[in-house]
Design brief:
By secondary structure, this protein is mostly helical. It has one domain. The chain contains 4 helices and no strands.
Length: 113
C-alpha cells in the first residue's frame, strides 16, 4: 500500500483531496457533523473487521508476502514506463497548460500566415 501511495502523482492527489476534505469540514458545520459521524462509523467497522480478519491474515502471511513482492516489482516497472507517476499534480497541470498554450500559439501563427 505504501508503494502505491509513494509516486508523487498519487501522493499529491491524495494531499489535494485531503486538504479539500478538511477545508470543507471547516467551512460547513452541517457537513462537518455528517463527516464526523461517517468517520466514526468507518473507524468502528475497521476495528471490528481487523479483529476478525487477523487470524486469517496470520495464516495467509507467506502468500501475502509473495503477492506483495510480485506487486512491488510490477509497480517498479510501471514507474519506469510511466515517469508521469513521479510528478506532482501541480507539475502535470503546469506542463499540460504549457503544451496547450504552445499548440494554440502554433495554430495562431499558422492561421495568421
Amino acid at each position: 500500500v505504501s508503494q502505491v501511495a509513494n509516486p508523487s502523482l498519487i501522493g499529491s492527489a491524495c494531499d489535494m483531496v485531503s486538504t479539500a476534505y478538511a477545508s470543507t469540514k471547516e467551512s460547513h458545520p452541517y457537513i462537518r457533523s455528517v463527516c464526523d459521524a461517517a468517520e466514526k462509523g468507518v473507524k468502528s467497522v475497521t476495528e471490528a473487521t481487523a479483529s476478525c480478519v487477523q487470524p486469517v491474515l496470520t495464516t495467509l502471511e507467506p502468500h501475502v508476502a509473495a503477492g506483495n513482492d510480485y506487486a512491488s516489482k510490477g509497480l517498479d516497472k510501471l514507474g519506469e514506463k510511466l515517469p508521469l507517476l513521479q510528478k506532482s499534480v501541480e507539475k502535470i497541470i503546469s506542463y499540460t497548460k504549457e503544451q496547450i498554450s504552445s499548440r494554440v500559439a502554433d495554430a495562431k501563427d499558422v492561421v495568421s500566415s
